[in-house]
């Protein structure tokens, strides 16, 4: 059952269990050392439904550095025992969590749609990613492979093993409120680290529900700790803590750079997953029906708020008009609305700031390019008045080096860039500071293979859109999208483990490497 604390409650005040059956929004505590606790700040904040901001979902702790310190202490206290727990046993807890997540998938997906806005089928997909990574990493409990190799000296054994690092700081965005925390926490935990988790302030309810399930699955007290509150207060305190040696952050490039500076000063391990400006290249031989479907899904799925969302189409000029005709009609037919309505194709943006940002870029687009469809907030649709809705918007004849062609907008906006051939397409695609996802639509196998080689992104698709990564492959980007780490797949373990090389000499004598076995 959900444990909650009264708004502003302090440790000495009532900490109660409750449900929202009375319809009143609950107040959630931080989850520290296996208990829901009020913040020492005595402050709280509300989470709202972006499709109707009158709908208050729940209240959460506006925590501060003292709460972070308590969570880090709890995680530090839990670390020795969790680290000493055999990895297959740790994996078994992940299996139980994966099964619970699968059992509660529908309820979590609905809660996610209410808090974050994405349409229900996509929210189910988000939870499914959490399930997938939990099963994948549960299996790692019986792998966590290192190398065994022969020594250069006789009667000597050599091997390498992965070791946990300690307390991991997990700082996540709102756009995949179950999947991304799971992508980070599952490898951290199976490897034997403990966790202090700070979710985005737009999606604390999803985080609290997730942590409840982790607790129910049997992660020992202190292994997973949740602290809600702002990036400035809670995020910074995690970063600055000398007792958090590893940080995994997903969010904007601007924040990522600041975080990198702080982490570098303290010599922390840091994994950054930042923004994107993902492009789809369309060659003149592409199947335009399939291409248009892939573009619409990649550009306007999750209201364009995926880090892998397609924001640029780089199209061969010979087929540009024909493609644009299809895109205009498909985008214009997408239905805006609350994500829980089965008729809805495109849900709201996350918050008022995101809506303002999209509107600012529409104004920029009017100066730089040609508006094809969308571009104005819906009016005369009273049921959308209280949400952050904006329709799918397409600009044609965008300059690759203009602002629309270069800057991450993170909304339902698509730029069309026309090029005369493959070489120009590659140049346009790669001419950004980001490098997350890309795609090519072509029937020419030679071109497809050239694209796999030429596209400077961490993920490349052929004849599919830019979204839809699977959890058993490495996920992440080149250039300004990150700092070289990868999530998901086996690669995720590299963030949360140290390599230890071990040599066992059973010769019974002194053997000097590089000396005794040389002339
Ligand atoms: P954001 O504003 O950077 O926030 C991300 C997280 O960092 C939130 O929990 C935020 O807390 C926290 N934070 C903010 N400032 C901080 C600071 N100074 N120190 C420590 N923590 C801080 O990003 P967002 O708007 O949530 O997410 C959208 C961005 O994430 C986009 O740029 C998108 O491309 C990127 N993204 C990348 C990937 C990827 O894998 N490459 C995946 C998803 C999203 P508050 O919420 O309290 O501000």
Describe the structure.
By secondary structure, the protein is α/β, with parallel strands linked by helices. It folds into two domains: 4-274 and 485-499, Aldehyde Dehydrogenase, Chain A, domain 1, CATH 3.40.605.10; 278-462, Aldehyde Dehydrogenase, Chain A, domain 2, CATH 3.40.309. Helices cover 37% and strands 21% of the residues. The chain has 15 helices and 22 strands. It has helices at residues 65-84, 87-103, 105-116, 120-140, 179-190, 204-217, 231-240, 253-265, 288-300, 317-333, 352-368, 403-406, 422-430, 445-454, 492-496; strands spanning 3-5, 15-17, 26-27, 30-32, 35-37, 44-49, 52-61, 148-150, 156-164, 167-171, 194-198, 224-226, 246-250, 269-273, 278-282, 310-316, 370-373, 393-396, 413-419, 437-441, 459-462, 497-505. Helix 1 packs across helix 7 (231-240) and helix 3 runs antiparallel to helix 6. The longest helix is centred in the N-terminal third of the chain and has 21 residues, at 120-140. Mean pLDDT is 94; it is low at 5-21. The structure holds NADP nicotinamide-adenine-dinucleotide phosphate. NADP nicotinamide-adenine-dinucleotide phosphate binds next to helix 7 and helix 8.
Task: Give short descriptive properties of this protein.
binds NADP nicotinamide-adenine-dinucleotide phosphate, Aldehyde Dehydrogenase, Chain A, domain 2, 2 domains, 519 residues, globular, seven-stranded mixed β-sheet, Aldehyde Dehydrogenase, Chain A, domain 1, 15 helices, alpha/beta
SSE layout and pairing:
Layout: E1 3-5, E2 15-17, E3 26-27, E4 30-32, E5 35-37, E6 44-49, E7 52-61, H1 65-84, H2 87-103, H3 105-116, H4 120-140, E8 148-150, E9 156-164, E10 167-171, H5 179-190, E11 194-198, H6 204-217, E12 224-226, H7 231-240, E13 246-250, H8 253-265, E14 269-273, E15 278-282, H9 288-300, E16 310-316, H10 317-333, H11 352-368, E17 370-373, E18 393-396, H12 403-406, E19 413-419, H13 422-430, E20 437-441, H14 445-454, E21 459-462, H15 492-496, E22 497-505
Parallel strand pairs: 3-7, 10-11, 10-13, 11-12, 13-14, 15-16, 15-20, 16-19, 18-19, 20-21
Antiparallel strand pairs: 1-2, 4-5, 6-7, 8-9, 9-22, 17-18
Helix pairs in contact: 1-7, 2-4, 2-6, 3-4, 3-6, 4-5, 9-10
The structure holds NADP nicotinamide-adenine-dinucleotide phosphate.
